[in-house]
Amino acid sequence: QVHAVESGGGLVQPGGSLRLSCAASRRTFSGYAMGWFRQAPGKEREFVAGISRSGGVTYADDSVKDRFTISRDLGKSMLYLQMSSLTPGDTAVYYCNTNPPLYAWGQGTQVTVSS
Q1: I need a labelling partner for 83 at 20 to 30 A (CA). Which of 11, 36, 53, 68 fits?
Q2: Which residues lie closer than 8 Å to 113 by C-beta, 6 or more apart?
Q3: How far apart are CA 26 and CA 18, in angstroms?
Q4: pLDDT for 50 beyond 90
């Protein structure tokens, strides 16, 4: 059973921007805080940003908090991550899940930051 489908990744130059989207099943989405996570090659998956169940509270890892913005559309069961001022260090596969993660991970969406 697919709980969430991530999209919006791609190749972007340093300093560029991307907006990631996550289409989650209503069962996954409703009633839970949600988060974005990422996994770079050879590294553990890590937390990037989170948002409360209502969307009123957001929080992010120090490495991205001034550059990334998380948001959600409760009516559409959609989660977003607006990323700006991207650096090569942001290169990773990005995933969405509840926060803390409760469901199997989806395919993720690849973000590559390179000139």
Answers
A1: 53
A2: 12, 13, 14, 16, 86, 87, 88, 89, 90, 91
A3: 25
A4: yes
